[in-house]
Amino acid sequence: MTSSEKIRLTEIYQSIQGESSFVGKRCIFVRLTGCNLRCSYCDTEYSFYGGKNHSIGDILNIINDFNCNLVEITGGEPLLQNGVFSLMTSLCDKGNTVLIETSGNRDISMIDPRVHIIMDLKTPSSGESHNNRYENIKHLKTKDEVKFVIGSEEDYVWSRDKLISEKLNELCGNVIFSPVFAQLEYSKIVDWIVRDGLDVTFQLQLHKFIWNPTEKGV
Question: Taking the model in full, what pTM does it have?
Answer without folding.
Answer: 0.94
